[in-house]
Design goal:
The protein has about 850 residues and is α+β, with helices and mostly antiparallel strands.
């Protein structure tokens, strides 16, 4: 059991990194020693070989010095038939001719000496005296038939070398049959002439030479082998020592691991013997770990003094004793039991106790291990589950709907349906089981069937819970709103087993929710959406998918006056009438909201600026028609409308609302029935009273500038501002002296300079009035010329604001076609000709040409 906790571990592995390093170092050292030994043996071999060669060469030189030159000369003077051409006896000669010369023969004494030398040195196989005659080498004397019988080319060349250099040479490993030989050639000199008379050839046995070499090399070989054996023994000792050290480290590590596992184990562990389950063996080692004490709520010393039977819950004691008896008899190797232990405070803890023998034998004194797992939480969960099951049964009986378990198929084939099915659907539960009479899918309203199937598929992909509201068609054909809560039941391989959930009747709450939603989102007086709903829709329509989104803000003029004069009821009637008229203008998809007391806002998704202008005109026409129809019965209604369009990456919906509000304020300035118009009216009254300007002049300018603006495709907001600018462009003349302003004749240069200041005066007046501030710069520049010769700044071309360029054309045309004190009016054709002549100098050439064309089209 503890082995399973600790795990199977090999204490010392042959593949351990440290042992691999020791093996690598040992192999490297052994290889290094072997290389050094090899080099040493080779060096010794070369040294002893050289020494042996020198010894044999010394023998040859010594023997050659013993031979007298006169004897060699006598041998060379023998008749030619005595010796063969190769230096060996001929095949017809008697054998004694080569081996036994007569005592009186010239070489008898030399041969005897050479035989004596060969006899005294066992390593010598043969001694020959060879003379060089011409290019042929002749053997004069040969002591034995051992060794090569013929003089090879190599030997002949070496003899020639000896004659030439007068130095001894050695020929290694000459072969003759299957034997190997070593040969030395030493010169025999004539002392008087210091010339070579012959060559003494001594042939040595290779075997004796090798035996001599081995005799010399044996100590070196023994030393080298001993050194290698010493290295191997040292490696073995180091390897064993390292293995022992590693084994000790592993044992210490295992000991520490055992201590760590024993003390830190998440389950209680006790090691004991006999029936002493709750305390340890007599030696006290590894008795009880910390978790064991924590589970039982007792200290180790306290547990050692207790009998486990006294702290076992009485209800569990009988089962424990029965298993303990079987274990003690050896019938079972161990057992497990869920039991309760009593704590000192009288409470108890649920545990899963496991008893197992630590040694596989029938000896009852063997140690055993007791493992305790605290399962109190699980037991509480099981008790809670049982209580939950009981509560679920009660809940299902009172559920305003049904609980189900079904297959994941298109029919939602029911496997289980609770008793609430009949109250909800009108069908008994068994009618839906396995689709006996009707499938659950048939009860779902048709428009929701595919939606629910797709939603369940989404829930499966996201591993989430299902929650959806839809309608059921009951047995009597009525519709009921239900909310379904469910989930997939999967097996261990994530395969779908079934669907489980509940279906709750929410029809009444849906009705109440609809009522609350309506009240939350609608205005009580008009029935339109309220500002809260407007705020939510504004966030929705701000998304790029709805662009362009146009905004129309409508304000009822004079509602406060109506309330003061006729009462709040009449004011409410007016607001409701306007709401109804605006609602008639709305298109499908538009959102009309009452956003203030007398203010309405219309959000128009996928609508351009031109579309918004058309809707605004429809609003105004609807009000005019209403006034015409109800002129005798009701008060006349007046509205002002401001519009703007939010474009993707150009203008946000929030900014469009601000711009529409500004446009609305500008419209109120030119709407005579608006309280804002009082400012414009008072200024215009002062202007008409002090100058020759007339209201008709302003109306004509308004007409012509609007004609030009519409032809140029200007926005409705710009057209309204252009109309206001046309009416007020000369408001600065109220600051000019009446004598100059109404002078019938031409002005002097000084008077003209004063007159030209009226544009700057007009700018200051407009700038000081918040409602007119936005047209102040236009008023300042309305006398600038295209060629830069105008005043007051001398601006040229596009530097001049577009409204000022438009107005200058309309103002000049009106001045030419109207009678003045100092000149009569020009004809239309003459005025247009003058306009064409001044295009590009005084006027914007493109706008001037457009104006001329438009006037000619309308005359």
């Amino acid at each position: 059991m503890l082995k399973q906790l600790i795990g199977n571990r090999t204490p010392v592995s042959a593949d351990a990194p440290l042992l691999r390093r020791v093996r690598a170092v040992g192999a490297l050292v052994f290889l290094l020693v072997a290389m050094i030994g090899t080099l040493y043996i080779n060096s010794a071999w070369q040294r002893y070989s050289t020494h042996e060669m020198e010894n044999r060469l010394s023998i040859g030189t010594t023997v050659a010095n013993m031979i007298k030159a006169d004897c060699v000369l006598n041998l060379e003077s023998l008749p030619s038939d005595t010796v063969t051409g190769t230096g060996l006896p001929s095949k017809s000669a008697s054998p004694a001719a080569d081996t036994n010369f007569a005592p009186t023969a010239p070489g008898a004494r030399i041969r005897a000496s050479l035989l004596q030398v060969a006899k005294e040195n066992e390593s010598i196989a043969n001694i020959s005296l060879i003379a060089l005659k011409g290019n042929q080498a002749h053997t004069l004397i040969r002591t034995a038939a051992n060794g090569p019988t013929e003089i090879s080319d190599t030997v002949r060349q070496s003899i020639v070398q000896v004659y030439q250099t007068q130095k001894s040479v050695t020929i290694d490993l000459l072969s003759s049959g299957n034997s190997l030989w070593l040969n030395t050639l030493s010169p025999i000199r004539q002392s008087s002439t210091n010339s070579v008379l012959g060559v003494l050839s001594i042939t040595f046995y290779q075997k004796q030479w090798l035996q001599s070499m081995i005799g010399h090399m044996l100590p070196d070989l023994i030393v080298t082998i001993c050194l290698l054996i010493l290295c191997a023994a040292l490696y073995r000792a180091v390897y064993s020592q390292t293995s022992l050290q590693m084994l000790s480290a592993y044992i210490a590590s295992d000991e520490a691991l055992f201590h760590g596992v024993f003390e830190q184990a998440p389950i209680g562990i006790s090691i004991g013997h006999n029936d002493q389950v709750t305390y340890a063996a007599p030696d006290g080692r590894y008795s009880i770990n910390r978790r064991y004490s924590e589970i039982l709520g007792r200290k180790p010393d306290e547990l050692g003094a207790l009998d486990w039977r006294t702290i076992t819950h009485p209800d569990d004691l009988a089962a424990d004793l029965a298993l303990q008896d079987q274990y003690q008899r050896g019938d079972i190797p161990g057992y497990s039991l869920e039991k309760r232990f009593l704590k000192p405070d009288g409470t108890y803890v649920w545990t899963n106790m496991m008893i197992a023998r630590l040694k596989e034998s029938s000896n009852t004194d063997d140690l055993h291990i007791c493992l305790l797992e605290d399962i109190s939480a699980r037991k509480r969960a099981e008790e809670a589950l049982a209580e939950s099951e009981r509560s679920k049964a009660v809940l299902l009986s009172h559920l305003p709907g049904l609980a189900y378990r079904c297959k994941y198929d298109r029919d939602w084939t029911m496997l289980f349906v609770s008793e609430g099915c009949e109250n909800l659907t009108g069908y008994k539960p068994e009618s839906l089981i396995h689709n006996r009479d009707i499938s659950y899918n048939d009860l779902i309203a048709p428009e929701y069937r595919e939606l629910l199937w797709n939603e369940w598929a989404r829930v499966l992909n996201h591993h989430s819970h299902f929650r959806h509201e839809y309608e059921l068609i009951t047995r009597d054909g009525t519709r009921k709103w239900v909310m379904e809560l469910g989930q997939f039941i999967l097996d261990d391989h994530d395969e779908i087993l079934a669907l489980e959930g509940i279906v709750i009747d929410i029809t009444e709450s849906k009705v109440r929710e609809a009522q609350v939603t309506y009240l939350n989102d609608h205005d009580f007086l008009t029935g339109l959406f309220n500002r809260s709903y407007f705020t939510k829709q504004k966030q929705v329509l701000s998304q790029s998918d709805w662009m362009p989104v146009s905004v129309a803000i409508c304000d009822i003029n004079g509602v406060r006056l109506i309330n003061d004069a006729f009462g709040l009821t009449e004011g409410d009637h007016t607001i409701a009438d306007v709401a109804h008229m605006l609602q008639q203008v709305c298109r499908q998809g538009d959102v009309l909201c009452r956003t203030g007391g007398d203010e309405f806002t219309l959000l128009m998704p996928h609508t351009s600026q031109a579309g918004a202008a058309f809707v605004a005109d429809e609003m105004l026409r609807s009000v005019e028609n209403h006034n015409h129809v109800h002129r005798a019965q009701r008060l006349e209604i007046s509205i002002s409308v401001g519009i703007c369009t939010a474009e993707k990456d150009a203008c946000t919906l929030e900014q469009a609302l601000i711009n529409a509000e500004e446009h609305l304020n500008h419209r109120k300035l030119i709407n005579q029935k608006s309280s804002h118009n009082a400012i414009v009216s008072s200024i215009m009254a002062a202007l008409y009273a002090r100058s020759q300007e007339t209201e008709e002049h302003g109306q004509r300018l308004t007409q012509w500038t609007r004609m030009l603006g519409e032809a140029m495709g200007l926005s409705q907001s710009m057209l309204d501002d252009l109309m206001l600018f046309s009416m007020l462009h000369d408001i600065g003349k109220v600051g000019i002296n009446d004598r100059i302003l109404n002078k019938p004749g031409p002005l002097t240069a000084e008077e003209w300079q004063i007159m030209k200041t009226h544009s700057e005066i007009g700018q200051r007046i407009a700038s000081s009035t918040p409602e007119l501030e936005h047209i102040a710069d236009w008023i300042l520049t309305h006398h600038e010329k295209w060629n830069g010769q105008g005043y007051p700044r001398g601006l040229a071309k596009e530097e001049i604001p577009l409204p000022a360029r438009i107005l200058s054309i309309a103002d000049a045309y009106d001045a030419m076609t109207q009678d003045r004190i100092y000149r009569p009016a020009m004809s239309t054709q003459d005025a247009l000709a003058e306009m064409e002549r001044c295009a590009g100098t005084q006027f914007d050439p493109e706008i001037a040409q457009l104006f001329v064309r438009l006037i000619r089209e309308h005359t």
